[in-house]
Known about the structure:
InterPro entries: FAD-bd_oxidored_4_C, FAD-bd_PCMH, FAD-bd_PCMH-like_sf, FAD-bd_PCMH_sub1, FAD-bd_PCMH_sub2, FAD-linked_Oxase-like_C, FAD-oxidored/transferase_4, Oxid_FAD_bind_N. By secondary structure, the chain is an alpha+beta fold.
Amino acid sequence: MNAIDTSILDTLTRIVGPSGILGGADMTPYLVDWRNLYSDGRALAVVRPGSTQELSDCVKACVAAGVPMVPQGGNTSMVAGATPDASGRAVVISTQRMNRIREIDTLDMTMVAEAGVILKTAQDVAREAGALFPLSLGAEGSATIGGVLSTNAGGNTTVRYGNARELMLGLEAVMPDGTIWNGLRRLRKDNTGYALRHLLVGAEGTLGFITAAALRLFPLPREEAVALCALRDEDAALSLFRRFRDRDESAVRAFEYMSAGSMHLVLDNVPGATLPLAERAGHYVLVDLASSRPQAGLRELLEEVLAEAMEEGEVLDAALAESGAQRAAIWRLREEHPEGQKLAGASVKSDVSVPVSKVPEMIRRSSEALRKLIPGSRPVPFGHIGDGNIHMNLAQPPDMDAAAFLARSHDIMDTVNEVVRDYGGSFSAEHGIGRIKTDMMEDWRGGAELAAMQAIKAALDPKGLFNPGKVLP
Ligand code: FAD
Ligand code: 2HG
Ligand code: ZN
């Protein structure tokens, strides 16, 4: 450690206090990404400010010393966005201690939460106040409000409530020069020049530090109905989605597709996972209906639509949840898909989107191309079919070395992406770019779009100190 490093660490310790700063082995969980793709991360320190003012002071000190900063929330990024590189030059700034719900208002239907509030806590606090914060994803027990906004996370309820961006009304942030911006407005309408709040959402910590957010709340559901269905094929999934949408679009809270490949990795690897159907099938969907109206007739709607689809041969079998515990058990099967794939060995993820109508074709074409590329590999697609967003993942062949398989990651992603491109899709639907996909930006977003992004970055963060090596090539 040189004299500059020692001096910045002294300054940061003065700002956050000795308990707010971590070094040595205490830093380990903050340096490795959730997928364990990069184990070479190093940092000068992990700094955990307790307030927006402390964070602002930390940023000013880092800017003055030319020290790069890596914002981190729950460190559940799927694209290694929240961990530092191997240089050891950066500090990780964690929002762990900025975890207060500042305000909740069930007339305005808004909640003001600090960046480090865990998503599940935000949901629970809203529910206790009689309202719903609808963002929901498998990592909700660790992911933070700052993280879900910085990645513009989607998740399971996007089909009804939109992405994280649509749930945000205003922000407070520390800008890259350390200035505090208070944009915590709780307004439904606010057209006052460039929407800075929307620029920071999805910026993955490259344009500043979100410290708090004003979020939208919704009425709590009074009736819910959930089913797990076995399907004939991918087209049947889409057809079933359409049947529900045509009958009552407002009732569909989630509509999730799971291929046999992916579901069976869960059943075979996750302790306690059991299929509530008579036998395994080639394709599954989870249908989740919810209404804030009492006696909305969701159970009847579910039964009627499934009966129609069974008559057409689209649905082969279905398990309808009879209790809250059964609803949770069905949802757990879906939520365990990332874990099931992790437990089954190495996998390469392609988080892609195409127009909803093209999903079945995209899944079939990608699966075929992947099997050809790596014989013996197992396509394990699943995801948010109602949004056209499929995790077109590939599990390693059982007899192939994991490292050799992962060395083909870029070929694998390119293979899927070429199919996706044919349908005008996106190579990153909800997880973002992080460190993994920066080299795809030129090809997919090059020209005016990337030039504008680079100009914005240069204007707001001229020294390039905010999350270097992420998002932009
Ligand atoms: P982190 O991982 O800590 O950070 C994510 C990015 O945001 C990084 O670039 C980081 O630098 C930046 N960042 C974090 N906090 C701030 C801040 N306060 N200000 C500025 N920048 C910040 N994503 C989906 O979209 N849909 C899903 O269904 C979904 N499911 C998941 C399931 C599992 C099991 C896992 C592990 C991840 C899943 N994810 C999903 C991915 C992930 O994007 C989300 O978990 C979440 O958005 C990340 O929140 P986090 O607090 O962990 O952020
Ligand atoms: C999900 O939908 C997440 O469960 C994770 O976005 C996707 O593991 C994945 O590829
Ligand atoms: Zn997802």
